[in-house]
Amino acid sequence: MQEQDPSAKPRMVRCPACGGDSVYAPSNRWRPFCSERCKNLDLGAWASESFRVPEQAPPEDQPFGDPKER
Ligand SMILES: [Zn+2]
User: Fold this and answer.
1) CATH architecture group of domain 10-50
2) CA-closest candidate to residue 21, choices 57, 10, 45, 42
C-alpha cells in the first residue's frame, strides 16, 4: 500500500502566529508557521512571556487541530 499520490494536496494548517494558511509539509521549513517571520514572532512571544516551554518538538504526524472538528 503506497501513499505516494501525486495529486494529493498538502495538508493545510492555521499559522499559530498570524492565523493564515500554512502548508504543513516538509517543503515548508517554517511549519506549522507560514513563514520565517511568523515563526520568529511566535518564538519572541514565548521568550517574553515565560521560559517554561520544553524544548520538545511535536510529533510530525500530529495535525495542528483536528480538521474533523470544523
Ligand atoms: Zn503566519
Assistant:
1) 2-Layer Sandwich (3.30)
2) 10
